[in-house]
Design goal:
By secondary structure, the chain is α/β, with parallel strands linked by helices. The protein is about 30% helix and about 25% strand. The protein has a five-stranded mixed sheet, with helices on both faces. A four-stranded mixed sheet has the order 8-7-6-9.
Length: about 200
Amino acid sequence: MLTLAFDTATSVSTVALLRHETVLGERTSTAAAVLADADELLREHGLRQEDVARLVVGTGPGSFTGIRIGLAAARGLAFALSVPVAGVPTLEALAAGAPGALPVIDAKRREVFTLGADGARALRPDELELAPGTTCVGDGAISYRPILERQGADVPADDDPLHIPWARHHGALAADFGAAEAVEPLYVRVPDAEARAR
């Protein structure tokens, strides 16, 4: 069972190729290059797009444009290859890569996306309730390092791979495969353009 997984919701996009639970290869990229990277991964392993049995895509939250690019790519590939798709929230994949850490994605507008008791939410970094020594990971943790560290959080170095929502974790977390149209984005709040129009 060959799975192609990718996430384009944050500042660093990722793509991974998995055979069952084994990661064959993984790359970081940009949202615009994720399909080219997926094609290169397949060719590196002597595989073709037709060998892909299922797709996994990150559903956000994160960049509105990035999420749309990822979902459009997943829908296009699913249609072309006649394969099922599963969506995995980006925050959950980020948390899976750093067990015990709090995932924090830069939401722009001086806010972050994070996981709370009721799921994903958007709030100002200084509104995060952090126990002393809480490890925070993600591009939001990097962007708001001074604020989070003043609140007692531990933020790994900027170049630490824990800050990346690796697609391998999306592949591992994926469960409900079905029609690509059934995979819904997780925006948490209205898009920036809509907010400006209000």
